[in-house]
From TrEMBL:
<dbReference type="GO" id="GO:0000139">
    <property type="term" value="C:Golgi membrane"/>
</dbReference>
<keyword id="KW-0472">Membrane</keyword>
<keyword id="KW-0812">Transmembrane</keyword>
<dbReference type="GO" id="GO:0016192">
    <property type="term" value="P:vesicle-mediated transport"/>
</dbReference>
<protein>
    <recommendedName>
        <fullName>Golgi apparatus membrane protein TVP15</fullName>
    </recommendedName>
</protein>
<feature type="transmembrane region" description="Helical">
    <location>
        <begin position="68"/>
        <end position="88"/>
    </location>
</feature>
<feature type="transmembrane region" description="Helical">
    <location>
        <begin position="94"/>
        <end position="116"/>
    </location>
</feature>
<feature type="transmembrane region" description="Helical">
    <location>
        <begin position="38"/>
        <end position="56"/>
    </location>
</feature>
<keyword id="KW-1133">Transmembrane helix</keyword>
<dbReference type="GO" id="GO:0042802">
    <property type="term" value="F:identical protein binding"/>
</dbReference>
<dbReference type="Pfam" id="PF08507">
    <property type="entry name" value="COPI_assoc"/>
</dbReference>
<feature type="transmembrane region" description="Helical">
    <location>
        <begin position="12"/>
        <end position="32"/>
    </location>
</feature>
<dbReference type="InterPro" id="IPR013714">
    <property type="entry name" value="Golgi_TVP15"/>
</dbReference>
């Protein structure tokens, strides 16, 4: 139903995440001139590493603590947040910011399009852990 192959999403996640990691690391050079930008680089690095890591392995409890990584709306807002954090001097960081903002806007639009299917790594591996699932079925009796 979706015209976008799943490999395209994987390529975009790895490339955008890698660019954000590199931009975060390049922001570490500002430790002596702008300490606030250095700290923002630490935050963006902490938010960017899981974007790449989740393409290869999904830890069991990450959905409970960081479910925004598993939806188009969450990833779009995350990309825009990282872009705003990384917007400092330097051509590479500004180029990365522009790419992250465009990717974030595209993902937010994808969230509202019904014919775009989510990638496989966005889907919960164990559906019994969903938020609306009750511990007991209707037939079970609570003692």
């Amino acid at each position: 139903m979706s015209s976008i192959p799943p490999e395209a999403f994987k390529f975009v996640h790895i490339s955008i995440g890698s660019l954000a990691i590199l931009a975060s690391l390049s922001q570490f050079l500002l430790i002596f001139t702008n300490f606030n930008a250095f700290l923002l680089g630490l935050y963006s690095l902490a938010l960017s590493i899981p974007v790449v890591y989740l393409e290869f392995k999904i830890p069991p409890n990450i959905y409970n603590y960081a479910s925004f990584y598993f939806s188009f709306l969450g990833r779009g807002c995350l990309n825009i947040l990282i872009a705003l954090i990384l917007y400092h001097q330097g051509f590479f960081r500004i180029l990365t910011t522009i790419l992250l903002i465009f990717n974030g806007i595209a993902y937010i639009i994808f969230h509202f399009l019904p014919f775009i299917n989510e990638p496989e790594n966005f889907k919960l591996a164990n559906p019994s852990l969903s938020l609306n699932d009750n511990e007991f079925d209707d037939d079970d009796e609570v003692v």
